[in-house]
Amino acid sequence: MSTRTSTSTGTSTGTGTGTAQRIADRYVALWNEPDPEQRRRAVEELWSANGVHLLQPPEDMRERAAELDFAETVLEARGHDALEQRVARAHEEFVAGGGYAFREQGEAVRVGDAVKLTWVMVRPGENEVLGGGVEVLVLDEDGRIATDYQFPGL
């Protein structure tokens, strides 16, 4: 079993996105990007063509799903088009429409092909954390995101 890890100063395998901190920087910047063309380009650079974003929805949505006898509720966006729509919708709701910004909290860590980062949502220029979560990104052999597990709720 490999014990190799990397943080912002570590190196990585693959030709895609690089060190844990570089991956985290690019990932969080994507959600704040106002230009749709730049967002699309970033989605294509960060995720593999068949990459997937899996989101554990908010508690109220999970409770409502349980009332309807759904054992599990996971929201999924797969492929560049769906990922671009997911990012655009979040940008419209939280950044453009809500006046928030996303930023990293702490250092990203990489173990093998997985990168873990913590993000927070704040008002620009303020430090009060209004929301946040943990992201676990599983990278493919080219260093692009194959699977993105999002756990909101800090």
What would your notes on this structure say?
This protein is α+β, with helices and mostly antiparallel strands and 154 residues long. Helices cover 33% and strands 31% of the residues. The chain is globular. Helix 2 packs across helix 4. It has helices at 20-32, 36-46, 59-67, 79-96; strands at residues 5-6, 47-55, 75-78, 101-104, 109-111, 114-122, 131-139, 145-152. Strands 1, 2, 3, 4, 5, 6, 7 and 8 form an 8-stranded mixed β-sheet that branches. The protein has one domain (5-152): Roll (Nuclear Transport Factor 2, Chain: A). InterPro entries: NTF2-like_dom_sf. This is SnoaL-like protein.
Domains counted in the coordinates: how many?
1
Helix content: 25-40%
Note the total helix count: 4
- 3D shape: globular
Class inferred from helices and paired strands: alpha+beta
Just give the CATH class: Alpha Beta
By CATH, the architecture is named Roll
How is the CATH topology named?
Answer: Nuclear Transport Factor 2, Chain: A
Global Rg? 16 Å
Percent of residues in β-strands = 25-35%
* Terminus-to-terminus distance: 31 Å
| Spans of at least 5 consecutive residues with low confidence | 1-17
User: What's the main sheet like?
Assistant: 8 strands, mixed
* Overall average residue pLDDT: 87
Number of strands: 8
What are the secondary-structure elements, in order, as H or E? Answer: EHHEHEHEEEEE
Question: What brief labels describe this structure?
Answer:
8 strands; single chain; 4 helices; globular; eight-stranded mixed β-sheet; disordered N terminus; 154 residues; alpha+beta; Nuclear Transport Factor 2, Chain: A
